[in-house]
Amino acid sequence: MISPSSSKACVILAFNASNQLLVRKHEGAGFDLAFTGPDTSKALAQLDAVFPAHTGLAEYFHAEINQTRHRVVFTQISGRPSDPSLQFQSIEQLEAHTATLGAGLRTVLAAIDPYLIHIPYLQLGENDFIYKFRPEKDRNLALYSQDADTSALYQSALCSAIKAIARRREGVATAPIPLDFGAVRYLIPSHFGFCLGVKNAIDRAYETLAANPGRRVFMLSELIHNPFVNEDLLRRGLRYLQSEKGVPFAVNGQKATAAPFLPLLWDTLTSDDVVIIPAFGATDEDKKRLVRKGIAVCQYDATCMLVEKVWKAARTYGREGYTVVIHGKHEHEETKATFSNTRRYAPAVIVRNLAETQLLGEVITQSLTDPAGAQTRFESVFADRHTPGFAVARDLARVAVVNQTTLLMNETREIIAHLRELYANIFGPDVAGEPARVGGSGRNDTLCYATQVNQDALARALEEPLDAAFIIGGKNSSNTYQLYRLCAQKLGDKAFFIQSETNIRSLSEVEHYVFPAAGPAHGGHVEVNSLWPEASSGQGPRHILITGGASCPDGVIQQVITRINSLFPASEIRSIADVQAGIEAFAIKA
């Protein structure tokens, strides 16, 4: 924030919550700057006369106006101006008529692009979160019982009963919960399904639709990686601007690649539209497009605060002089957003796994004797996964690691450990009083505790005797795939990655999704695997583990249990009501 007493010439750009700029109409049809002065106090007095309540003044750049260097500061205001000569205009509207604008406004607009990303969040401090998780008691659960289809998707008395006894401490995994249905016995980890960030994002989407009847409501891309949640929101009128890979949609709902001659939905947006940012976050480039159009961003930003925590860590590392190594999948929305956010503060490179980190290590080692060759190799291996102008010799001298929150914690730890060992072998131990070669001081606070507690709870459940496991989640859900990997390590081909109960054809045929772990270019596919080809009865109770990824609704988990139960003789299966009563009785005793 700048001091009002500054003696330097000043321009104050005042934006409303929709990121529209307040400008002053001059003679004719054009506009010019609303608040300027030979010093900050004079410009501020003009602002205060019209909008006495506003955020503090934040300086972002300088502009040469009428041969005088002006500091350009931003503030956010609310309400409408009483002066008819003052009007709100979107930056896009102003840029479409630059010939009619005053010289000062033209000069400022020509330089504003790098700073657009800051405009929606002027009311927030640097360490504030866009939206903190709301307590369960403050959630509007009525949103999930609007009709039978939505209720079936989200509501499960069975899962609610399990959570009531298993989650005494939200962030700590406890013992799994057994469900004895007779012929089949399930084991449910203490933590499964929706994480707090996903709950928050879904709440925001349903609330936004309910609060904006008659307005077009868009989601930047998929809200979460679950097709049933996304389909239910589409049924209520939500539309997507682009695919999860960033391919824009045309006005007919098809990808632009399939409808190249139709206008894009992006191009039809106006300040009357609502655009929700999903839990993964958004790139600076997409946010700046929304800001230019005068669309509210912060109000509808559902970015998970644990993703934001990664961004804040990357910013801190950058300011400390580190290059940021992002452990993530470069094609994933969250990693794209993290990379975009990080590049404001530091050089960055994305590594997919330990193997790619080892390749990065080979580049670092090669740079000591063959810097030109190392640079060429780096640009080939990590093409499109590093910041522009990345110089191996300069930018890999000191590194710090952040991660995509949906990946396995242990893999991120392995990457950090490998880099520490590599740098110690090359440069020797860190010198006391000097910055470490690999930053972070051993911390791993950018790892998502919600993702980790689901993995920890699953690991505890996998210690029990099991015949099979069903891991439920969307095909593009990275965290669901990580849970599947843990199960497959113990159960091999008796671990099944499924989307819903419809993937269970019979006890002998299950549609298992093979996740494209090496990247989308390798393509995922469904294969039909056998569960138990032998008769379902007379074999003694089957022991099945069931869990859901962080974007899997409780209703789908109960539907999977119901489907499996239906494949056994009814006489051998207890009712859900009886099993639920047993859980509740156990909760009273516990």
Number of β-strand runs: 20
Percent of sequence in beta strands: 15-25%
H/I helix tally: 19
Helix content: 25-40%
> Per the principal axes of the C-alpha atoms, what is the gross shape?
globular
**Mean pLDDT over all positions:** 91
For the biggest sheet, the summary is: 5 strands, mixed
Which strand order do you get reading across the main beta sheet? Answer: 8-9-20-16-17
Parts with pLDDT < 50 across at least 5 consecutive residues: none
The assigned structural class equals alpha/beta
Structure description:
The protein has helices at 40-50, 91-95, 103-111, 148-154, 157-166, 196-211, 227-235, 265-268, 284-292, 305-319, 333-342, 354-367, 371-381, 392-395, 409-427, 449-461, 478-491, 554-566, 576-589; strands spanning 10-15, 21-25, 31-33, 35-37, 58-65, 68-76, 86-89, 177-180, 184-188, 217-219, 239-240, 274-276, 323-327, 348-351, 399-403, 468-472, 495-498, 510-514, 525-529, 542-548. The model has no long low-confidence stretch (mean pLDDT 91). It is α/β, with parallel strands linked by helices and 590 residues long. The strands form 6 sheets. Strands 8-9-20-16-17 form a 5-stranded mixed sheet, sandwiched between helices. Strands 4-1-6-5 form a 4-stranded mixed sheet, sandwiched between helices. Strands 3-2-7 form a 3-stranded antiparallel sheet. The protein contains 19 helices and 20 strands.
